[in-house]
């Protein structure tokens, strides 16, 4: 029996704009097993961040979930539909059940409060502890995310810390109430590669020790390969392929995923092998083509691609939204 | 490698800040061979951008020489430097911020030509049209404004502008970092085409080692204003001879599940440039540092053809187990499912 912490089905998100309503997510579906890491991968405009904001109930005022279900099952086994929660309901969940870390730690931390205060705020909101006990937990947590001299760093302000240290503070803040699900939106994109390696290492260690599930949003296929158990590839507001990380790389089923993989320079590959870019650019959301949104850039496209296409299981636990079983040159 | 177009000799740049002097560049020396692409890598704060700008004399060096075609740029007066600027151009990171939003593409690209009084208005327009075609855009795009283009297209406009004066040397400062990978690959291939077609010499500044390995003939690795290692791409990427290069290399997540082996995690952050470590600036994070590393900066050691490392403990480095032998040591392309198609791939940019 599987234990799904998250089951998103046919999620639609629409934004009001001057030109009318724009659909940012078109029937997004994916699942995340408890204790595992699912990577949501895609380029800018693919809808990966909107998906995470919809999960957290943090869509901007002009955006709304117009259809679909966001089923979440917490540690106590109780199942709920996140899209049905009101503001008060969400406040109980955020930080305690589901936490989020963002790309830019500087703009996500308040410059006027010490990092200890900010990490402790979550405890203050969700747990009934006196100040001394709170402080103790905060220092323990800063220690757990490997901030050196945690007790004195708790009194530092965000600007006194490096980018890597700030991201550790963000992780401490997200983890202090021991959430069941961590949503990480490009948490290492702004960091240098050596610091990224430290943070990824830390996240893996925390997952082993604390057992949380991770929804990891990234555009970096290297980070996907390193972190993910499962991968959902997004394009123009829809999931086009979902599989285990191993299958996604070894047995790629969707032409867009194949195109992404061919576009990345890989270390150690011979120089005479040119990258094969995907021609053109991502279409704007208000002018998506009929049928498959990737068809205009797809080397395998044919007339049938103008018909609607849905995610179908091409192999065991491997879904692709393409008329082809796998990309093969005609 | 051929005779260098640029010889950088003991270049230093000190910035005086309210908190004290910062050596953004400290005794930097290496050659940039004519017709080659040299990649300059390092973490943020390593001095990559300052080096690029100092080479173009957009920043005045405190000491040292930049010999361009046998001439020391830093000895030129303003007039001579102005003429020299036609021969060296720069492409910036942010294609939005670096294009004037109120100028049409034609004016953006021909601004340099006009400033140097080259050609009549209609000749300049013809030049703009052919430049747009060369970078994969259409001549009639010159009537549009920068905001009408996507990020990748804007970066192509920035490239066309840099090419307008037919420079011999181009500094590309993080020019693909802001682009999505599918578009980044288009621009990288364009740069390779241009290098071939125009025999351009380039300094490509980037923090992404995989991109640099793909594009560049030579790699220079910087840390806290100093060069750690410089050498041919093959040598620096497959058998780095500096512990910092090794750490950088091992930190890259490979797009192959299970490929990332044991990695040498660097501890801590890059130290403050206001108070750099004595001796070797990398020693505070170096897994191999010994007392001798704290005394004097390491001298250049020739470790191969055109390959120099600034490390006093190279012998100890060689004894250590190479990292990720299984994935890096594999013959190139052996496990690459797209190798065949890549080889056949059209060399032109779509």
From TrEMBL, chain A:
Q: Which Pfam families match?
A: ABC_tran (PF00005), oligo_HPY (PF08352)
Q: How does it sit in the membrane?
A: Peripheral membrane protein
- Where does this chain mainly localize? membrane
Matching InterPro entries, A to Z?
AAA+_ATPase (IPR003593), ABC_Ni/Peptide_Import (IPR050388), ABC_transporter-like_ATP-bd (IPR003439), ABC_transporter-like_CS (IPR017871), Oligopep_ABC_C (IPR013563), P-loop_NTPase (IPR027417)
- What GO terms in the biological process aspect are recorded for it? peptide transport; transmembrane transport
The family note in this entry says:
Belongs to the ABC transporter superfamily.
Which NCBIfam families does this UniProt record tie to the protein? oligo_HPY (TIGR01727)
Question: What's the protein name?
Answer: Peptide/nickel transport system ATP-binding protein
Phylogenetic lineage: Bacteria, Pseudomonadati, Pseudomonadota, Alphaproteobacteria, Rhodobacterales
From TrEMBL, chain B:
Organism, by scientific name, is: Tranquillimonas alkanivorans
The molecular function GO annotations come to:
ATP binding; ATP hydrolysis activity
The answer to whether the entry has keyword Transcription regulation is no
Q: Where is the composition biased (Basic and acidic residues)?
A: 337-350
* InterPro entries referenced in this protein's UniProt entry, alphabetically: AAA+_ATPase, ABC_transp_ATP-bind, ABC_transporter-like_ATP-bd, ABC_transporter-like_CS, Oligopep_ABC_C, P-loop_NTPase
Give the chief site where it resides. Answer: membrane
Q: Which residues form the ABC transporter domain?
A: 6-249
Give the UniProt subcellular location, in the record's own words.
Answer: Cell inner membrane
- Which keywords, in A-to-Z order, does the entry hold? ATP-binding, Nucleotide-binding, Transport
Which terms in the GO cellular component ontology are assigned?
A: plasma membrane
The region called Disordered is annotated at: 319-350
> What does the record give as the organism's lineage?
Bacteria, Pseudomonadati, Pseudomonadota, Alphaproteobacteria, Rhodobacterales
Among the Pfam families in the record, one is: oligo_HPY
By its UniProt entry, which PROSITE patterns does this protein fall under? ABC_TRANSPORTER_1, ABC_TRANSPORTER_2
**What is the protein named?**
Peptide/nickel transport system ATP-binding protein
What membrane topology does this protein have?
Peripheral membrane protein
Kindly list the biological process annotations in GO that this record carries: peptide transport; transmembrane transport
Q: Which family does it belong to?
A: Belongs to the ABC transporter superfamily.
């Amino acid at each position: 029996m599987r234990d799904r912490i998250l089951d998103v089905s046919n999620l639609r998100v629409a934004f009001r704009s001057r030109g009318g309503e724009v659909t940012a997510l078109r029937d997004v579906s994916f699942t995340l097993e408890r204790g595992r890491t699912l990577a949501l991968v895609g380029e800018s405009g693919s809808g990966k961040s909107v998906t995470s904001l919809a999960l957290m109930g943090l869509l901007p005022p002009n955006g709304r979930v117009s259809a679909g279900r966001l089923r979440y099952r917490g540690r106590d086994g109780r199942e709920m539909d996140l899209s049905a929660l009101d503001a008060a309901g969400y406040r109980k969940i955020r930080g305690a059940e589901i936490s989020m870390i963002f790309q830019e730690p500087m703009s996500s931390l308040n410059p006027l409060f010490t990092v200890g205060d900010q990490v402790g705020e979550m405890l203050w909101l969700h747990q009934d502890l006196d100040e001394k006990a709170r402080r103790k937990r905060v220092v323990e947590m800063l220690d757990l995310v490997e901030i050196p001299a945690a007790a004195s760093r708790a009194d530092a302000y965000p600007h006194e810390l490096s980018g890597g240290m700030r991201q550790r503070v963000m992780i401490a803040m997200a983890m202090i109430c021991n959430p069941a699900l961590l949503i990480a939106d490009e948490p290492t994109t702004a960091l240098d590669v050596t610091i990224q390696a430290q943070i990824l290492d830390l996240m893996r260690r925390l997952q082993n020790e604390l057992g949380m599930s991770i929804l990891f949003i990234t555009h970096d296929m290297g980070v996907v390969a390193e972190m993910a158990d499962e991968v959902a590839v997004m394009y123009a507001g829809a999931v086009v392929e979902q599989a285990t990380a191993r299958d996604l790389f070894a047995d790629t089923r969707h032409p867009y995923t194949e195109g992404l993989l061919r576009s990345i320079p890989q270390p150690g590959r011979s120089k005479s092998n040119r990258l094969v870019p995907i021609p053109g650019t991502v279409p704007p959301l208000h002018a998506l083509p009929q049928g498959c949104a990737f068809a205009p850039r797809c080397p395998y496209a044919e007339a049938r691609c103008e018909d609607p296409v849905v995610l179908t299981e091409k192999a065991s636990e491997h879904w692709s939204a393409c008329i082809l079983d796998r990309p093969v040159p005609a | 490698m051929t005779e260098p177009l640029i010889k950088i000799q003991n270049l230093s740049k000190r910035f005086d800040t309210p908190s004290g002097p910062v050596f953004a560049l400290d005794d930097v020396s290496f050659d940039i061979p004519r017709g080659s692409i040299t990649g300059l890598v390092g973490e943020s704060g390593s001095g990559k951008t300052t080096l690029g700008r100092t080479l173009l004399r957009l920043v005045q060096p405190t000491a040292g020489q930049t010999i361009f075609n046998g001439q020391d740029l830093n000895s030129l007066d303003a007039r001579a430097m102005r003429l020299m600027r036609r021969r060296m151009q720069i492409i910036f990171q942010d294609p939005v911020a670096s294009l004037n939003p109120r100028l049409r593409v034609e004016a953006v690209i021909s601004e340099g030509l006009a400033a140097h009084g080259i050609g009549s208005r209609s000749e300049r327009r013809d030049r703009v049209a052919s430049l747009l075609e060369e970078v994969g855009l259409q001549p009639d795009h010159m009537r549009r404004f920068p905001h009408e283009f996507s990020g990748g297209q804007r970066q192509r406009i920035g490239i066309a502008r840099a090419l307008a004066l037919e420079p011999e040397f181009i500094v590309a400062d993080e020019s693909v970092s802001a682009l999505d990978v599918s578009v980044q690959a288009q621009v990288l291939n364009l740069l390779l085409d241009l290098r071939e077609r125009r025999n351009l010499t380039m300094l490509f500044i980037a923090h992404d080692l995989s991109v640099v390995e793909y594009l560049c003939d030579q790699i220079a690795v910087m840390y806290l204003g100093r060069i750690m290692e410089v050498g041919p791409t093959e040598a620096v990427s497959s058998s780095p001879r500096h512990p910092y290069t090794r750490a950088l290399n091992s930190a890259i997540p490979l797009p192959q599940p299970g490929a990332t082996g044991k990695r040498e995690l660097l501890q801590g952050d890059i130290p403050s440039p206001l108070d750099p470590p004595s001796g070797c600036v990398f020693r505070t994070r170096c897994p191999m540092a010994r007392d001798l590393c704290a005394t004097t900066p390491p001298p250049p050691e020739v470790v191969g053809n055109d390959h120099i490392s600034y490390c006093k403990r190279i012998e100890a480095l060689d004894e250590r187990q190479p990292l990720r032998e299984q994935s890096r040591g594999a013959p190139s392309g052996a496990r690459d499912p797209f190798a065949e198609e890549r080889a056949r791939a059209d060399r032109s940019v779509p």
